[in-house]
Amino acid sequence: MIDGKKRPKLVAILVGNHPASKVYVQRKMEVATAIGIESYTIRLNESITQEDLIKEINHLNVDKTVDGILVQLPIANHMNEHEVCQSIVPNKDVDGFHLENMGSLMVHSNGIVPATALGVRELIIRSNIETFGKNVVIVGRSKHVGLPIALLLHANSTGKTGGLDMTTTICHRYTPHTELEKYTKMADLVIVSAGVPNLITKEMIKPGACIIDVGITKVKVGDKYKLVGDVDFENVKKVAGYITPVPGGVGPMTVTMLMKNTISVAMKNDKYK
């Protein structure tokens, strides 16, 4: 309690024992605790039915003490990810994946914006990257990452979502390489979230461009594994004006924006007014 007001509460649901998912959830909960957000994780067996998972979510939906809910993706193969995400009520959907929140982003209205898109925007703003009318290429079209980033960056800066007025092109892993290179060479900003290691090379980048690497893949190097992005970091950094590392770039910003979303939804509750 602070001044008689309850702390924000964030609940994560983890289905199964996916190693990376366990690490991601742990990091989110550690950050939440560090900044004063009450948080805990519900761990469910991978064999749980989708119906029972949604029942668990519904308990949290009606729990007035819970401000934010997230289901760590990916979930079990026998479940429909879309249906599970839609079962979270929009005003507790701190990941911003519900259709209502995605629709609000589409029309530049109030809603919860996906954390990775917010993190990318924050990196651009804090680095004083010029965006008005500039060319940005997003390589990746996923509904949770690439598409929200594109919507946010191309939106009008006077709208409620705080867009960046960029001229936006969306490509993806199946864009022919010659076409992809044509677009990236013209771009002032390249954001990559295709999940293809070293997809973007030095020859594809305009000198001085800003490169934001959202991709992350575990690859084997000798007898060990390492995390790499979609950009050939060591070579691309020789021509780029700005570039994010993997790991340590977009990831921490995504967690930070998740916390921001949690605090924002909590502030809208009556108990915080």
The average pLDDT is 93
Poorly predicted segments: none
Order of helices and strands: EHEHEHHHEHEHEEEEHEH
The rounded distance between the terminal residues' Cα atoms is 14 Å
Radius of gyration from CA coordinates: 19 Å
The neighbouring-strand order within the major sheet is 5-4-6-7-10
Structural class: alpha/beta
Instruction: Quote the beta fraction.
Output: 15-25%
**Quantity of strands, as a count:** 10
Q: With helices defined by DSSP (H or I, 4 residues minimum), what is the helix count?
A: 9
Largest sheet: number of strands, sense, barrel closure? 5 strands, parallel
Give the proportion of residues in helices: 25-40%
Q: How would you sum up this structure, described in words?
A:
The two termini are 14 Å apart. A five-stranded parallel beta sheet has the order 5-4-6-7-10, with helices on both faces. α6 links the parallel β4 and β5. It contains nine helices and ten strands. The model has no long low-confidence stretch (mean pLDDT 93). The protein is α/β, with parallel strands linked by helices and 273 residues long. The longest helix has 18 residues, at 250-267. The protein is globular and about 50 Å long. The chain has helices at residues 19-34, 50-61, 81-86, 99-106, 115-126, 146-154, 177-186, 233-236, 250-267; strands at residues 9-15, 38-44, 68-71, 135-139, 167-171, 189-192, 210-213, 217-221, 224-228, 242-243. The chain is 35% helix and 18% strand.
